[in-house]
Design a protein that fits this description.
Blueprint (H helix, E strand, L loop, with lengths): L21 H5 L3 H34 L5 H12 L2 H11 L2 H27 L5 H23 L14
Helix pairs in contact: 2-3, 2-4, 2-6, 3-5, 4-5, 5-6
Length: 164
């Protein structure tokens, strides 16, 4: 399988507006406009890294061998496929509760993805070099994720479940 064939997730630019009108941006103070630009840039970087995690996870799954390969690969891809849509969901909603809910799901999927990659190593059905590549991409994602979540702003909406 060619690396370029794994580009199933749309480019960030497909989602870059998130309902914001140019007039809205023009009416912002320079400080607020910069804040909006930085927020969008953090989300774009996170999204692009999620695409990289997805691609490398898919390539990793192609290398799995043995009786556990299909099941392990399926679990890995289920988790990898959730990252991009959840980032888009968090950015599109622009509500603190929904952003936090999506962030929690993203974190869970990443941790499960990492667990499955490590399980493939434990079951000796993968090549350690490929495992390391995927784990490195997940760690890059984690660091961008931390910066992304730091910038979530609490709003006036209350979480009916009391979690956020």
């Amino acid at each position: 399988m060619e690396f370029d064939d794994m580009d199933h997730m749309p480019e960030w630019e497909h989602f870059n507006r998130f309902g914001r009108d140019d007039e809205d941006v023009e009416n912002l103070s320079p400080f607020d406009a910069e804040k909006v630009r930085l927020k969008a840039n953090r989300a774009k970087n996170l999204y692009n890294q999620a695409r990289a995690v997805y691609k490398y996870a898919a390539l990793f799954c192609e290398t799995l061998e043995g009786e556990m390969a299909d099941m392990t690969g399926s679990l890995i891809m289920q988790n990898a496929m959730m990252l991009c849509p959840k980032i888009i969901g968090a950015e599109g909603a622009n509500m603190y509760i929904l952003r936090m809910e999506n962030a929690s799901i993203i974190r869970t999927n990443c941790k499960e993805l990492e667990t499955q990659v490590r399980a493939a190593d434990m079951f000796e059905i993968c090549t350690p070099e490929y495992r390391d590549i995927v784990l490195d991409e997940i760690d890059k994602f984690r660091l961008l994720f931390i910066e992304w979540v730091k910038c979530f702003e609490k709003d006036e909406f209350e979480d009916d479940w009391g979690l956020y």
